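in:
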């Protein structure tokens, strides 16, 4: 597989180094991404998102959700208290997992809820006032304004 070289982006742009690193990381990732546990990402409003992860067999105490360095890390530890059980068929996987989601700037986790075998994590994009669009007032330069008029002076000759 060809590797993406972000060096030309660094020469011609300022402040996009994280995006170039993310592109490099995505393009160099293994083609076999882990598929356990399955999850959905949905847009619930213009600036709100929800990640729903199927965590059947996990109690809320077995799960952890944390944000560090613009990455959301969801981990589940398996509970091995059923080692005394003898299974004829075991189709519900409760193996330990760690799933990472890279968050864009200004995306914050607003809450997490565990119900009916699903872990729902709500996210909100909160743009600071400095990044929101704002209207710039245009000052009119009126030619007949008193401050711009120059009165003719009579010749002293």
């Amino acid at each position: 597989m060809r590797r993406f070289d972000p060096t030309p982006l660094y020469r011609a742009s300022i402040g996009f180094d994280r995006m170039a690193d993310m592109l490099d990381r995505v393009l160099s990732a293994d083609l076999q991404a882990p598929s356990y546990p399955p999850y959905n990402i949905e847009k619930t409003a213009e600036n709100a998102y929800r990640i729903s992860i199927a965590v059947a067999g996990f109690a809320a105490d077995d799960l952890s959700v944390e944000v560090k360095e613009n990455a959301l890390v969801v981990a589940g530890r398996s509970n091995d208290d059923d080692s005394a059980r003898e299974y004829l068929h075991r189709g519900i996987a409760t193996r330990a997992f760690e799933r990472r989601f890279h968050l864009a700037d200004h995306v914050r986790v607003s809450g997490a809820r565990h119900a009916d075998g699903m872990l729902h994590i709500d996210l909100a994009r909160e743009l600071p006032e400095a990044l929101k669009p704002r209207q710039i007032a245009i000052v009119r330069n009126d030619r007949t304004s008193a401050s711009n008029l120059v009165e003719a002076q009579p010749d002293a000759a």
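note: DSSP finds two helices and seven strands in the chain.
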